[in-house]
Amino acid sequence: MPVGTQATVKALTREDLESFGAQIILGNTYHLYLRPGHELIQSLGGLHKFMNWPYPLLTDSGGYQVFSLNQLAKVTEEGVTFQSHLDGSSHFISPERSIEIQQALGADIIMAFDEPTPYPSDISKTEKSLKLTTLWAKRCKKAMGSSTQALFGIVQGGMYPDLRKISAEQIIEIDFPGYAIGGLSVGEENNLMYDITEHIAPLLPADKPRYLMGVGTPEDLLKCSSLGVDMFDCVMPTRHARNGSLFVKEGKINIKNAKYKSDPGPIEPDCSCYTCLNYSRAYLRHLIMAGEILAMHLLTIHNSTFYQQWMASIRKAIERDIPFNMDWADSN
Known about the structure:
Elements: E1 3-4, H1 14-19, E2 25-27, H2 29-34, H3 38-43, H4 47-50, E3 57-59, H5 63-68, E4 74-75, E5 80-83, E6 90-93, H6 95-105, E7 109-111, H7 123-144, E8 150-155, H8 161-174, E9 178-181, H9 190-200, E10 210-212, H10 218-226, E11 231-232, H11 236-242, E12 245-248, E13 251-254, H12 274-278, H13 281-289, H14 293-320
Parallel strand pairs: 1-2, 2-3, 3-7, 7-8, 8-9, 9-10, 10-11
Antiparallel strand pairs: 4-5, 5-6, 12-13
Helix pairs in contact: 6-7, 7-8, 10-14, 11-14, 13-14
C-alpha cells in the first residue's frame, strides 16, 4: 500500500497511482485528525471523495504517531493524552475515539487502537503493553457497532516469541476480519524481524488477511511474503525517491551520482513507468541537483511503480508455485 499520510501520496496524483496499478492506499488517522480534522473531511463526503480516490483505503489507528511523536504522552487504561506536534494543543484519544475518527474518515479498513511497543523494551514493559493492546482491541470492536468498515486487530508482544503467541491468541479470540503484526521494523535487526514474522504469521488465520505494518525494502517484502504475509505498507519508495535513491532490479542507484551527469539512458532499461519511458538519467539528475519540484514527481513515479511491479511478480510466483522472477513484473 502506498502511504498517503495526509490524504495524499507525496508527489503523486490519482492518475499516477492508477497508472502503476495501486489497489489500496493508507491514510494516517493522527495527522488527518489534527489537520484538517475528521469532522471537516466527513462533512465533505469522507476521505474517498475528499482526496478523489474511489478505490479502497486503509487508515491506521493513530497510535504509532501518538507515541512516536510525543515524548510526554500520558497513557492510562482509558486512553492517551498527548500534545499536537503542530501547535502544542492537548488532545485525548481512547480506543472509542480512534474508532469514531476512523469511521468519520470513512476508510474501508480501519485499525484497532494499540500501544506500540518501543524497541528495545524489557519483558515487563512489553507485557504491560500487550495487556493494554488486548483491552483496547476489545473496546474497539465493541465501539464498531454495525459499521460496514473492516476492523483489523493488531498483534504486539515486542521481540519475545512467547508474548507474541499470547498476543496472537488473545487478538484472534476477539475475532477480527483481518490481523496485523505491529511493533516490527522499529530499529531491530532484519533477521530478528524475520524471525518474529516467521513465528507469528502461521499462528494467524490462513483465511484472513495478514498485514505486516511499516515494512519495508523489496527484500523484506519478498522474504515476508514467503513467510505468509499478505499486506504491507511503507514510506520507503516515496521517501527514497525524494532523496534521489532509486530502486532497480539490481538494488538501488543514487541519481545524484556524478556518473549519471551525461547518461542518456532511463533509470532502468526495461522499466515501463512513465519516467523511464520519457526521461534520461542525465535529465533526472539535473532536476534533483537543481532542486526542481518535478524531480520529486518523476522519481516517485519510478520507485512506486517498481514496488507495485515487485509485488505483482511475488503474486505470480505464489500463483504458479515457482521461484520469484522480477521479469514477470506488470501492474496487474
